[in-house]
Amino acid sequence: MSRTFLGMPGTVSMMGYSGKETFPENAAKAVRNSQLRFNLRKATGTIRGRRASVVGELPDWPDLRQAGKAIKDHTLRNLDTYLVRLEEAVTKAGGHVHWARDAAEANRIVTDLVKATGETQVVKVKSMATQEIGLNEALHAEGITAYETDLAELIVQLGDDWPSHILVPAIHRNRSEIREIFVRHMSEWGRPAPERLTDEPAALAEAARLHLRERFLATKVAISGANFMVAETGTLVVLESEGNGRMCLTLPETLISVVGIEKLVPTWRDLEVFLQLLPRSSTGERMNPYTSMWTGATEGQEFHLVLLDNGRTGVLADDLGRQALRCIRCSACLNVCPVYERSGGHAYGSVYPGPIGAILTPQLRGMGSELDRSLPYASSLCGACYEVCPVAIDIPSVLIELRGRSRHPVAERAGMAAAGWVFKRQGRLARAQRMGGRMRRLVPKRLPGPLGGWTDTRDLPAIPKESFRDWWNRTDGGAR
Amino acid sequence: MRVALFITCVNDTLFPDTGKAVVTLLRRLGVDVDFPEAQTCCGQMHLNTGYRAEGVRLADRFVTVFRGYDAVVVPSGSCGAMVREQYPRLADGGAFPGAVAEAVADTVPHVYDLSEFLVDVLGVTDVGAYFPHRVTYHPTCHSLRGLRLGDRPRRLLEQVRGLELVPLAGAEECCGFGGTFAVKNPDISAAMCGDKVRNVLDTGAEVLCAADNSCLMHIGGTLTRQKAGVRVMHLAEILASTEPGDAREREESR
Amino acid sequence: MSARDVILARVRAAVEGVPDVEIPRSYRGPEPATDGLVDLLADRVRDYKAVVHVVEEAGVAALVADSLAARGVRRLVVPEGFPETWLPSGGFERIGDEPRLSAADLDTADGILTTCAVAVAETGTIVLDAGEGQGRRALTLLPDYHLCVVRQDQIESGVPGAVARLDPARPLTWISGPSATSDIELNRVEGVHGPRTLEVVVVTSG
């Protein structure tokens, strides 16, 4: 598979990480950052409770989950048919459909569309797809400034930072850090932060409202993604909270939506499932404040849809891995993941962090780098992600499958081969156990090499004099 | 009923007392348990770390050894989940030749975690145990989300005379062991265990109990490193414990 | 080959021989209306920190007048087709959208008064479809105050009933409470870019 650009290539410096370091190396730094740990623990703890409570309210949640899974599987199986159907419907409703094989092609299409309007500024609704392809950077190179309007994206953009969460890209920042960023940097991008800004969340939200108001009223081109596209009707759906999405989707004269090809659902009716699954799984609300649905050119707007492949068809070709394309980007798996809670999102070196990122990034980007090879191991396989996933992506199984496909370190291969040899005959196992029993006093307090990671913080168990099987044989199963 | 004990390689090598406790407990309940000596390892370490070929060979060995038993009792949530969850998935994926796949289909439904065997097969929750200590229970991920043991371990512990069971905050969260995860991601693993240990200490319990010695080895290794004064015990060892006066009865039952 | 043909060819190659799946729809579908829906809707909308009133038809105009007065709304946008019987006789400046108001004009209005297309009791949602009495989407976006009148017969119990009643060809806006954000420490804060105050009047058909 060719290397697919995912926003954070291995050469870009990010948050003090070189990008060449592996997940364990990045995570080792993150766990020592007490502010990050505190912010993440607080935020993920809050959201876990909220999700559990609103999911528990629905008696038919398991049925919705099975339906959501099946709708996505059926769509993926017939993706060609539904993509063509979507194209027809959008075109019939006055929209223009473009197809992009990769990030470069998508960026070129969007850049050309913006240039054709003569504008040099665009407003953006939070979108994973445009982050994935590095659209803002591509526009910048062509003299076009993209203004992020989602509060968290604004925090990330103003702070010259990287997103660390799918839903709440600034989850690694707490209120006082956000205040600091607003006070320092809002003036560089437009209206400065109000004087005497406090770190009350309501005051910070108000500052964002004031900062962006003029921008919304004046900007003529908007760029969005979409949560869902309905093949049958050509309808696009965006779920959001703040109203920045409505501003971008409604006010500008030209709207360009960049959407991954897997975001399709076949029929209008299918939305009845996903409009229940997504808000409850992501923000833990019964419904998010605003959902916009539009079909083609709406209320006099010029509408362009850019359908993005960028590695997705490669994932689609994989029998086990394709289930990652069911993902509706709710981020429930991030919020519940004990590893993510302690490593934060930057450690994953991709716009897709957390458990879903650990299976999506190596599939989209390949496993050519040390970082990408380390991602399938960024999990204790505790299974919490699978349990909360609203479309039942079996993340642990895909992780295990990906582990089997990557190259293993030499010492580990030797160890595993030796273990395999010992387990092949019970006699070998018994002899190894007896040798361990005789040498049990010689085991050092600190293990050498990679195994030292264990003894850095944990004692080893005392090795018993006699294994269970030797006891069984000696005592005839305890009878003697 | 022909009942076999799958001791698991970790218990066999490092925690023989757990195996002895299972034998004691089952004999006390009138079950004669067999230990097929050809058993070694279920292949979990290999399969979960990405060494599929070795893992598949060990799975093959497992079903060859245990096929034909009415019940295979496993005192380990993660090994039990490996057999029950992953073997059928491997079979579906065509990992085994036809005859082995058949053996998998024959054997897997007879594999029980110890607590399932006690509660579901034998139909007992009061196993006649006595353990006068303050205990907290960590459900372990694969017991909880893999085998779905539910409240079986708790029901068994609640019936133990003298035992005070105290709830553990954040019980359902992973302790950070995850097999080779603990070695490959030692910092995150230690951070997860640190939080688990803090929650354990907050309970004021003397004993941390679980149905998986791998997780207990991890948490216990951290507890002893911290000189925390809390010991870890496998569920089987608590359930096998009896009052001093019962010792004769226990000896007789052997 | 065009990008379109390449992507479609890749898709076909990727899924060749993959079995299709049936979609189980055992979840709750549209359900008949019950008397409890008005209260459920009111409760769920209030959960979002919106203001909710439940009145009979005859009391709507007076309630609207009180609400406008309480908020000090002078310049009120009233979209085409809003029922005249629900409008108070005076006390505010009525602004129409014909000719189309500019975004800047809309931004100076104190509030917007609309009907809706459908409401969802279980989720506390009102849905606007730009129909009679609702106007285009920007009208309910720029003014800081949105007063929405819902008829009891427009209330669906759950999401499936609402989806079934809506026309996808129309621009749709699902509104659940005032604009909000959870971006700061995942705590919900009401009031960002959209209207910071949402007030809902449920008209019972008793």
TrEMBL record, chain A:
<keyword id="KW-0408">Iron</keyword>
<dbReference type="Pfam" id="PF02589">
    <property type="entry name" value="LUD_dom"/>
</dbReference>
<keyword id="KW-0249">Electron transport</keyword>
<keyword id="KW-0813">Transport</keyword>
<dbReference type="InterPro" id="IPR003741">
    <property type="entry name" value="LUD_dom"/>
</dbReference>
<dbReference type="InterPro" id="IPR004452">
    <property type="entry name" value="LutB/LldF"/>
</dbReference>
<dbReference type="GO" id="GO:0046872">
    <property type="term" value="F:metal ion binding"/>
</dbReference>
<feature type="domain" description="4Fe-4S ferredoxin-type">
    <location>
        <begin position="324"/>
        <end position="393"/>
    </location>
</feature>
<keyword id="KW-0004">4Fe-4S</keyword>
<dbReference type="InterPro" id="IPR024569">
    <property type="entry name" value="LutB_C"/>
</dbReference>
<dbReference type="InterPro" id="IPR009051">
    <property type="entry name" value="Helical_ferredxn"/>
</dbReference>
<dbReference type="GO" id="GO:0051539">
    <property type="term" value="F:4 iron, 4 sulfur cluster binding"/>
</dbReference>
<dbReference type="Pfam" id="PF11870">
    <property type="entry name" value="LutB_C"/>
</dbReference>
<dbReference type="GO" id="GO:0006089">
    <property type="term" value="P:lactate metabolic process"/>
</dbReference>
<keyword id="KW-0677">Repeat</keyword>
UniProtKB/TrEMBL annotation, chain B:
<protein>
    <submittedName>
        <fullName>Fe-S oxidoreductase</fullName>
    </submittedName>
</protein>
<dbReference type="Pfam" id="PF02754">
    <property type="entry name" value="CCG"/>
</dbReference>
<dbReference type="GO" id="GO:0016491">
    <property type="term" value="F:oxidoreductase activity"/>
</dbReference>
<feature type="domain" description="Cysteine-rich">
    <location>
        <begin position="3"/>
        <end position="83"/>
    </location>
</feature>
<dbReference type="InterPro" id="IPR004017">
    <property type="entry name" value="Cys_rich_dom"/>
</dbReference>
<dbReference type="GO" id="GO:0005829">
    <property type="term" value="C:cytosol"/>
</dbReference>
<feature type="domain" description="Cysteine-rich">
    <location>
        <begin position="135"/>
        <end position="219"/>
    </location>
</feature>
Automatic annotation (TrEMBL), chain C:
<dbReference type="InterPro" id="IPR024185">
    <property type="entry name" value="FTHF_cligase-like_sf"/>
</dbReference>
<dbReference type="InterPro" id="IPR003741">
    <property type="entry name" value="LUD_dom"/>
</dbReference>
<feature type="domain" description="LUD">
    <location>
        <begin position="105"/>
        <end position="203"/>
    </location>
</feature>
<protein>
    <recommendedName>
        <fullName>LUD domain-containing protein</fullName>
    </recommendedName>
</protein>
<dbReference type="Pfam" id="PF02589">
    <property type="entry name" value="LUD_dom"/>
</dbReference>
<dbReference type="InterPro" id="IPR037171">
    <property type="entry name" value="NagB/RpiA_transferase-like"/>
</dbReference>
